[in-house]
Amino acid sequence: MLDQLYRQLVIEHSRNRRNHRKLEGSKVQQKHYKNPTCGDVMTLFMEVSTDKRINDISFVGEGCSISMASASMMTELIKGVSVEEASQLREAMEQMIRKGEVSEDIDLGDALALEGVHKLRARHNCALMAWQALDRILGDYPEYRLK
Ligand code: ZN
User: Fold this and answer.
1) From the CA of 67, how far away is ligand 1's center (Å)?
2) Which residues pair with 41 in a beta bridge?
3) Is the pTM of this model over 0.90?
């Protein structure tokens, strides 16, 4: 039953992608990301405020339903949080997908629907693509770093 519900949530997000648009402006950073395993591609757009809060986040891309649903779910989760919280969410997501461990402290919201991807090793990169793009942006720009 739960599986069915999760599957529907993934399909719903992949069809009605949240924040699926470009962001423009001088403060917008972007990162193109490719998942060679499956051919998924995306560009992540992000605008971070001077107090290190993610003001806005969006993506454009094409790929399998897991990758697109995951990107959609991620933008919903990340919008408005601090860089530090974004980083914690990313770690929790990585842990769930790679190790099958669901964090008790950090709520991944709709992205919890992707828990089952842990068992599909070949799809790990699909579920994590958007999160890896996020990590790259946060890592690339020194002003976004925590220290
Ligand atoms: Zn994929």
Assistant:
1) 5
2) 34, 62
3) yes
Distances from the Cα of 36 to the Cα of 11, 122, 123, angstroms = 22, 11, 11
Domain ranges of the chain: 2-144
Structure tokens that stand for 46 in this block: 């992000």
Correct CATH for 2-144 of 3.90.245.10, 3.30.1330.30, 3.30.70.1520, 3.90.1010.10: 3.90.1010.10
Residue 34 CA to ligand 1 center (angstroms) comes to 10
pLDDT digits (tens, 9 = 90+) for 46-105: 999 988 999 999 999 999 999 999 999 999 999 999 999 999 999 999 999 999 999 999
Alpha carbon of 52 to ligand 1 centroid (Å): 31
Strand ranges in 26-125 using DSSP code E only, listed in sequence order = 28-35, 40-48, 54-62
